[in-house]
Amino acid sequence: MPVSDHTKNTDGIGSLLPIAGQNGGRDEARAGPGSSSSDIEALNPSSRSVEFGTDAPLRLDCQQDLAPFTIAYQTYGELNAERSNAILICHALTGDQHVASIHPVTGKEGWWSTLVGPGKPVDTTRYFVICANILGGCMGSTGPASINPKTGQCYGVNFPVITIRDMVNAQARLIDHIGIGQLFSVIGGSMGGMQVLEWAARHKDRFATAMPIATAPWHTAQNIAFHEVGRQAVMADPDWHGGNYMAFGTRPARGLAVARMAAHITYLSEKALQDKFGRGLQDRNARSFSFDADFQIESYLRHQGSTFVDRFDANSYLYITRAMDYFDLEAEYGGKLANAFQGTKAQFCVISFTSDWLYPTRDSRSIVKALNAVAANVSFVELDSDKGHDAFLLDEAEFLSTVRGFLNAAAAKRGIKPAREVPA
């Protein structure tokens, strides 16, 4: 099928794998005058991207065909001669392909730079790391902010509703394109962990090891409830315009900011919030007797909301949260989660955190129990942390050593050479 690969070396870590058939990096900007940097990234990503043609559409769970479609991605490190050292990183709800490189919109370090990079647990001097913006995302992969080829306008809410399985099937197309038969590992936390589980269920022979981290095999009623509050906040914003806000030159920034604020609370533990903020006042010595941000926690949440809208598309938020809510691996396999993993030969390391109340340890235990039921090779670690769900993104020493240890042992078993010395 016709595939066009657009390459830009912007990641700053390691080197990119040369792929035959590159067109030299097409970079025409399709966003209109006055567009924000996030709008431009959605249509014309600064990372690599590959467009899959109309002759082999992606069949979605909603029974629609999507074609053409683009997947934007970053790579770090070098693929070895045996093509055996590739690791796929799956990102969470508000993440993207810039896992270990400077973000082109915010200018901040990669969202998992504690874990991925030279000398890090996912060592880019040893492994070839791939991270793709998910289908439905807004950093260059086809999603609601992309151009609908049938209309010449942004899809908006005319984009088909997608699932975690659709995202993973699109990633599998990317891995095929790069020319990797079997990944060394698939790693992801939160929604990224759901993608890891979907890989384990649908593409059993395509990877040797897997690390589902701080995740769950289904969304509970509480998970769905928090997402619905966020979606309603977006859709209640008058600037949403029924999802057609780009045609009006607006964006539902207030609604999306509120959605982000509500969601961010679920990523932290009560202790983390209390220790960091308590009842401290923000830049004042007394209460203002107004509805200004008197408390530090109020100011923090408002900042989280206001900065989020600068880098994320509101419709993408609706679509991705819906995909997470639809995720139920047990229901997809006849009401028995173990059926999803039947026949797997991969080695698993499942990780949870004690203070994670969004995807608590009982969810990880359900995954481990299902893997044990089919005699899979699985290890399980519950890590003591007071940081809440977001602990997997932070500089947690025990977590980082767990990942390093698991990957090093598996790599040695598969004959992947140790990392070369990183210059001081």
How helical, in percent, are the residues? 25-40%
Question: What number is the mean pLDDT?
Answer: 91
Helices, by number, come to 11
Radius of gyration: 21 Å
> Which regions are unreliable across 5 or more consecutive residues at pLDDT < 50?
8-34
Name its key features.
424 residues; alpha/beta; two-stranded antiparallel ribbon; 15 strands; 31% helix; 16% strand
Summarize this, please?
Helix content is 31%, strand content 16%. The chain contains eleven helices and 15 strands.
Topology:
Elements: E1 3-6, H1 37-43, E2 48-52, E3 58-59, E4 65-66, E5 69-76, E6 86-90, E7 116-117, E8 122-123, E9 128-132, E10 147-148, E11 153-154, H2 164-178, E12 183-189, H3 191-202, E13 207-213, H4 221-236, H5 253-266, H6 270-276, H7 296-308, H8 314-326, H9 329-332, E14 347-353, H10 361-373, E15 377-383, H11 397-413
Parallel strand pairs: 6-9, 6-12, 7-8, 12-13, 13-14, 14-15
Antiparallel strand pairs: 1-2, 2-5, 3-4, 5-9, 10-11
Describe the structure.
The protein has helices spanning 37-43, 164-178, 191-202, 221-236, 253-266, 270-276, 296-308, 314-326, 329-332, 361-373, 397-413, and strands at residues 3-6, 48-52, 58-59, 65-66, 69-76, 86-90, 116-117, 122-123, 128-132, 147-148, 153-154, 183-189, 207-213, 347-353, 377-383. By secondary structure, it is α/β, with parallel strands linked by helices. Strands 1-2-5-9-6-12-13-14-15 form a nine-stranded mixed beta sheet, with helices on both faces. Strand 10 and strand 11 form a beta hairpin. Helix 4 (221-236) packs antiparallel against helix 5 (253-266), helix 4 runs antiparallel to helix 8 and helix 5 packs across helix 7 (296-308). It is globular. It starts with a strand and ends in an 11-residue tail after the last helix.
